[in-house]
Amino acid sequence: MGLFSFIKNIGMDLFKGGDEADEVKEMLNNEFPTQITDLSVAFDDGAVTLEGSCDTCATREKAVLLAGNVKGVEKVNDENFTAPPAEEETEFYVIQKGDSLSKIAKQYYGDAMKYPVIFEANREVIKDPDLIYPGQTVRIPKIS
After folding, report:
1. 97-103 CB contacts, 8 Å cutoff, 24+ apart
2. Which end of the chain is more exposed for a tag (fewer CB within 10 A), N or C?
């Protein structure tokens, strides 16, 4: 994947005045307690660098999105954040003003009622399907 860009002043308000790298690492360890091994996180002026090994490509993608959708983060570098190869390429979408998961599902799948597919693919990033925000980046999985 490489270097992902995010909107720095939008996202989950995670940083509470402690060490940002430790806070991101704790969040990822809480969300992925067994799926990421040897996790190392660095934070420098809005850039998060992730290192470690993920059990699947989906875990890697979700961890990158989770770290990037934090207020104060504008880049995530995952060059040394490994995972087995994906079976198929994932598409990413940046939420726009006025979007809903059903609107996005209609756009990608032709059926607004398929919004649970997007929600399930982003469960770690989106806690409530009715609470998404402009600038948030999500995964759009392929469906048959």
Report:
1. 97/134, 99/132, 99/134, 100/130, 100/132, 101/126, 101/129, 101/132
2. C
